[in-house]
Amino acid sequence: MTRTSDIEGDTAADNVGDGDGETIAPTPYVLTDAPGPLSRDELVAVDTWWRASNYLAVGQIYLMRNPLLREPLRPDDIKPRLLGHFGTVPGLNLVWAHANRVIRQRGLNAVYVAGPGHGGPGPNACAWLEDAYTLLTPDIPRDIDGMGRLFHQFSFPGGVPSHCAPETPGSFHEGGELGYSLLHAFGAALDNPDLTVFCVIGDGEAETGPLAGSWHANKFLNAGRDGAVIPILALNEYKIANPTIFARIPEAELVELLRGYGYDPLIVSGDDPAPVHQAMATAMDTCLDRIAEFQRAAREDGDTARPRWPMIIMHTPKGWTCPPVVDGERVEGTFRAHQVPLPTARTNPRHREVLEQWLRSYRPEELFDEHGTPVALIRDQVPEHPMSLNPVANGGLLVRDLDLPDWRDYGVPVDQPGTGQHEATRVLGGWLRDVTARNPHNFLTLAPDELASNRLQDILEVTGRNWQGEVGPWDVALSPTGRAVEVLSEHMCQGLLEGYLLTGRHGVFTCYEAFIHIVDAMFNQHAKWLDASAQVSWRRKIPSLNYLLTSHVWRQDHNGFTHQDPGFLDVVVNKSPEIVRVYLPPDANTLLSIYDHCLRSLHYANVVVAGKQPGPDWLSVQEAALHCAKGVGIWSWACHNDEPGTTPDVVLACAGDVPTLETLAATAILRDRLPDLRVRVINVVDLMRLLPAEEHPHGLSDPEFDSLFTRDRPVIFAFHGYPWLVHRLTYRRTNHAELHVRGYKEKGTTTTPFDMVMLNDLDRFHLVMDVIDRVPGLGERAAGLRQDMVEARLRARAWTREHGADMPVVADWVWPSAAIPGD
Questions:
Q1: Which domains does the chain show, CATH number per domain?
Q2: Structure pTM?
Q3: Vertex 80, ends 150 and 50: CA angle to 5°?
Q4: Phi, psi of 63 (to 5 degrees)
Q5: CA dist., res. 735 & res. 702, Å (int)
Q6: Could you give the C-alpha distances from 570 to 198, 418, 607, 725, in angstroms and in order?
Q7: 42-56, 485-499, 550-564: the lowest-pLDDT one
Q8: Do 205 and 116 form a contact (C-beta atoms < 8 A)?
Q9: Which of 603, 496, 604 is nearest to 540 (CA)?
Q10: Which are the contacts of 346, defined by CB distance < 8 A and separation ≥ 6?
Q11: In sequence order, what are the residues at sequence separation of 6 or more whose Cβ sits closer than 8 angstroms to the Cβ of residue 295?
Q12: Chain CA centroid to CA 140, Å
């Protein structure tokens, strides 16, 4: 292979003769013979596909008309904005061509993941050759008109992106952000025993943190139950402007690294097509033979040993087959081939001439007939079940509803509000245990080593933790067939679950609230996929991405400031309102009701925040079902003097379990000490109800909102997260000027639960003070009560400093007690 060091040893003068900035077109190569498993006819066939897909890729980047060069290229044949990335495309097309060969020969059920960022022209081209565009998008048929439309739409206003996206047939992996390809591939393979995933990983992508962790995903693949992934590390040596680490590691060191991850690497290297084709064919056959033997041993002999799965290292030039020199600078095999090798082809006559020579170097007259249809040699290589039309890559086609037990049977009894206590997530864990048992092939729970910590350990009564490695004498609940995936990487949990959901199955990702931020970018990417795919007519809805965030900000008092952050909610509400849902259930029964709804839903990102510590039970099963269906409502049993036909003096609103507790404790004090005050209590369980109806499907109309929160009375809102999020959601409401929000103020430490809420002025005593300060005329006549509240806070703070725990009058409070320190 011509390596970069060889190229860099040349000078511009060596390449162009006189060093005058010449631009040189690629020379059409002659396909030589090379030893290997492919016969001459097979070699010609796979190379013909490769040339055709490369031609179509170049056409997508450059052309808006004249797709088969029936006339000399003119400036207006070329797009005014040249967008796209060619550098990685020849490698992607090479893998697709060889994957099709083994799919046909072995009858594989296979899908393709293109990890290198903006390699979209390659999979687009292969999907068009396979006639997927005709079937899915009939206005892009497999003829010259369809080719022209394929070219025109690429990176064009109203068209398709430059990377693999929902519009790309056969893709379930968004290529715009790097690092997740291998996780999506393994997630797709879980519980898909006959699936093979060809996953191409870019060498730039391989430098990312998520991808570095992703190599360990092979530790969760069970050869007896799951499908297989063939990772193909595509080394073309460069990113946008500098070399990649993986391509400059000595080959022996790279092989050692990958063997250390548990793989058995095979190497395909070169820049002469014929030997590369033969090497790739050998590598593909070897990988599939070994995979077949691992699966046979597991499925027939009961072998439970973790295999050393095969993979391929593919080392080929960046921008292979593009112009070798442009404006006196080496391009092919360098970083300059990363994007558009001829950036001024529309305005520069020499670039335009070389572009035409480049396109003709693929000999399109041998690839497409007079109608622009691929020749028979190409059409015959399309498998009976092509990757571009595999329903696995359009997972909504395969969705089966979960068999869910009736959540009401798991509810806790509530005779009187606030008199009993339960750990909400432990109650949910009992239900999820039976969800897991009743759905043994299409439901997973993923956690970064936090299943038991988050009180979901009941799931382990019916399944183990997925574990394919050695089991020690003190290990607990490890199983090669486990339905719970625990790995201390939020990236891996998110990526594996995304791959599982994108291919039509269901799951839950539970995480400490503060650390879900680690996957902010992954969430953004998936939410955008959901949003964009909803606009693609042939895409079907997939199961929702369900988060359960616990160990939350208000009860991370033992771990301290670094573990206290509710800001993921702010990230989520930035996404399309058609996609995101945020729920803050106040107790165990509402959590059950909400999660039943989430697991039945499709095509959403559902974020549920619930506590794992003992908390009051407020609503019965029946009340919880009604309240969650409404999403927001007046808790009439907690109100005071809020009779029908009257207007309250103040509204106490709350969202979240701890804010609800503090709000009701404040309400009890007001009822006792200011008996004439008219108090309305509102609980918000569906945060999106705060938005206007025209902004979100769950939003309240202005009359509905006004009827609850009034048009002109003070509203004291105790909120789980950062206060400004509530203001952001409600800024257009009539009564926004009277809305006063208490929430997390970025004040935290290792302290007691009640001291934590006091640090952020969310405590019951401060809420009472807010009422006194906000209700007109109340300040003077309630001055004594306000002073009592100030002193109550001081006593509570002093008690924690002396005893290391909260005062019993606070810690043991139950509704409707009005207990105040010092009373």
A1: 4-397 (3.40.50.970), 399-615 (3.40.50.970), 631-811 (3.40.50.920)
A2: 0.95
A3: 40
A4: -100, 140
A5: 10
A6: 36, 30, 11, 7
A7: 550-564
A8: yes
A9: 603
A10: 75, 78, 79, 80, 82, 352
A11: 193, 223, 224, 228
A12: 30
Q: In terms of Cα–Cα distance, which of 55, 61, 50, 52 is closest to 151?
A: 61
C-alpha span between 733 and 707 (Å, rounded)? 12
Residue 405 in contact with residue 430, Cβ under 8 Å? Answer: no
* Rounded Cα distance, 223 and 296, in Å: 8
Instruction: Calculate ∠ Cα 393-395-396, nearest 5°.
Output: 140
Using alpha carbons, select from 240, 290, 243, 248 the residue that is nearest to residue 265. 290
Supply the Cα-derived Rg of the chain in whole angstroms: 31
**Per-residue burial over 433-471, b = 16 or more CB atoms within 10 Å of its CB, e = otherwise:** bbbbbebeebbbbbbbebbbbbbbbbbbebbbbbbbeee
Give the tens place of pLDDT for each residue, 195-220. 999 999 999 999 999 999 999 999 99
Confidence of residue 556 (pLDDT cuts 50, 70, 90): confident
Euclidean distance between CA atoms 786 and 764, whole angstroms: 12
Please report the sign of the dihedral spanned by the C-alpha atoms of residue 416, residue 418, residue 420, residue 426.
Answer: positive
Question: Count of residues for the chain?
Answer: 823
* Single-letter residue type at 361: S
Give the residue carrying structure tokens 């001055």. 783
Number of C-beta neighbours around residue 620 at 10 A: 18
Helix (H, G, I), strand (E, B) or coil at 267: strand
What is the number of alpha carbons within 13 Å of residue 347 lying toward its C-beta? 5
Residue 390's φ and ψ, nearest 5 degrees, are -70, 125
Cβ-contact 650, 696 below 8 angstroms = no
Q: pLDDT tens digits, residue range 312-321?
A: 999 999 999 9
Backbone angles phi, psi at 617, to 5 degrees: -95, 115
pLDDT higher than 90, residue 29: no
Residue-wise pLDDT tens digits, 393-424 = 999 999 999 999 999 999 999 999 999 999 99
List b or e across 509-538, with b for residues whose CB sees 16 or more CB atoms inside 10 angstroms. bbbbbbbbbbbebbbebbbbbbbbbeebee
CB 671 within 8 A of CB 618: no
**Residue of 616, 608, 512 lying closest to 556 (CA atoms):** 512
Tell the burial category of 117 from Cβ atoms under 10 Å away from its Cβ (0-12, 13-18, 19+).
buried
Cβ neighbours for 758, distance < 8 A, ≥ 6 positions apart: 765, 766, 793, 796, 797
Q: Are 335 and 242 in contact (CB under 8 A)?
A: yes
| Helix-helix angle 520-533:490-502, to 10 degrees | 10
Helix ranges (H only) for 513-601 are 520-533, 568-572, 588-600
CA-CA distance, 61 to 78, in Å (whole number)?
A: 9
Contact 805, 752 (CB under 8 A): yes
> Which residue(s) pair with 508 in the sheet?
445, 546
